[in-house]
Each structure stands twice: as structure tokens, then as C-alpha cells.
Amino acid sequence: MSSVVSVRTLGLVVAGGAVGVLAREMLLLPVDARGLPWATLAINIAGSLLLGIVVGWLDDRHPRARAFLGTGVMGGFTTYSAFAVASAGFVGAEPAVFGLAASLVAASVLGGVLAAFVGLVIGRRVADVPGELEDPEDAR
Predict the structure, then answer these.
(1) What pLDDT, in 10s, does the model give residues 69-101?
(2) Angstrom distance (rounded) from CA 81 to CA 68
(3) Residues 4-19: tens digit of each pLDDT
(4) What's the pLDDT score for residue 1?
(5) Cystine design at 45: which of 5, 80, 100, 111 (Cβ 3.0–4.6 Å)?
(6) Which DSSP string corresponds to the chain?
(7) Which residues of 107-127 are buried (b: 16+ CB within 10 A; e: fewer)?
(8) What is the mean pLDDT of residues 125-132?
(9) Sign of CA dihedral 63, 132, 138, 73
(10) Are 43 and 75 in contact (CB under 8 A)?
């Protein structure tokens, strides 16, 4: 099944992405290279929480707002690629550093999933919409 995205929706996603990227970069500007993996972790967990809230709150009621805030802003704010590159940079490192990298990966994945779950619960409560959590495929 294919879906057609309107030009307006695409524009909202692009504009939201710009806002999210700007917010992330403003937070990362004061961070030095040594703290960057941990700052990226914090941003990705916060973004997972906020995306969960957006998805739980808006659900399918406001598709344009969800496109702007969820796909756009939160998609631009969070950064899987920076997380992946920071993690890959530790491969082949001494055991103590590799252990730290493994901890960073575990914290990113588990923290992100937990934060998204909490966000969905909060968003549904804000919207006062009881019910089950939606499938991950529907959260895009």
C-alpha cells in the first residue's frame, strides 16, 4: 500500500526538522568533544520522551501537527546517526573504554524505549484518551 504525502505536509515536516536541528545544535554548542556522546544520549532520550508525548497526545486527530512536531521537530532533534558514529568510534578501544561504549549503547536503546513508553502514557493522559498504546509502525 502506498501513501501520498501532500506538499503541505512535506513542508511542515521540513520546517519542523529545521526547528529540531536548531534546538539540538543550540544544546550541543557548549559541549566539548568528550561530553558529546553523553549529550547525544540525553538529547535522544529527551526526544524519545517528547515524541511519545506528541504521538500519545495527538494520535490521529491532528495529522499536520503530528507531522510538524513528531516527524519534523523530534526527528530533527534526535539523532540516531550521531549515536551510531559515537558508538562505532569505540570499537577496538581498550576494554575499559569498550565497556563504557557498551553502556552508552545500552543506555541509549533502553532509555529511549522507556522514555517513549512514558511519553505515550503522558500524552494519552493529557489528551484524556484511554486505550492501548499504538503499534510502533503507526508512531512514524
Answers:
(1) 999 999 999 988 888 887 777 776 677 777 888
(2) 21
(3) 779 999 999 999 999 9
(4) 42
(5) 111
(6) ---PPPHHHHHHHHHHHHHHHHHHHHHHTT--GGGHHHHHHHHHHHHHHHHHHHHHHHTTT-HHHHIIIIIIIIHHH--HHHHHHHHHTTTT--HHHHHHHHHHHHHHHHHHHHHHHHHHHHHHHHHT--SPPPPGGGG-
(7) ebeebbeebbeebbebbbeee
(8) 72
(9) positive
(10) no
Q: Which three cell numbers stand for residue 83?
A: 549515536
Task: Give the type of residue at 39.
Answer: A
Query: What is the C-alpha to C-alpha distance for residues 59 and 133, in angstroms, rounded to an integer?
Result: 10
Amino acid at the residue 9:
T
Which value, in Å, is the radius of gyration of the alpha carbons in the chain?
Answer: 17
Look-up of cell digits 513542508: 11
Cell numbers for 76, please give them. Answer: 530533527
For residue 94, how far is the Cα from the chain centroid?
30
Q: What is the residue type of 35?
A: G
